[in-house]
Please model this.
Amino acid sequence: MHRTPSSKRALTLVLIPLAMALMGLAANVQATEVDADAANKLAKRNDCFKCHAVDKTKKGPSYKKIAAKYKGKPDGEEKAIKNMTTGQKVKLEDGTEEEHKVIDTKDPKELKNLAQWILSR
Model:
């Protein structure tokens, strides 16, 4: 197929913005990757593993169970962060309730990373 200069220009006008959009998307995906090491360190520093495990129930639900609870919910990350930062009452696996321990960071990036790590289980 023979392309005229105007058809090449039109194709270029479509492909360049598309390529730029895809590069931006790739950069955004990389920016939201979870730092598992940082999340683990923060969880250990705050004794989260005393009550939670990744794949088994302890005093609190497993992270897999928490992730399943919030899967597909647009406010799941927000709710996970709220649980970690407000000391609200939570229901334990044995049916009792207690205040959830407040995590020792106010850094929104650390909180978001931990929440994303938990919800990715």
Observations:
- Confidence is low (pLDDT under 50) at residues 26-31.
- The two ends are 50 Å apart (CA to CA).
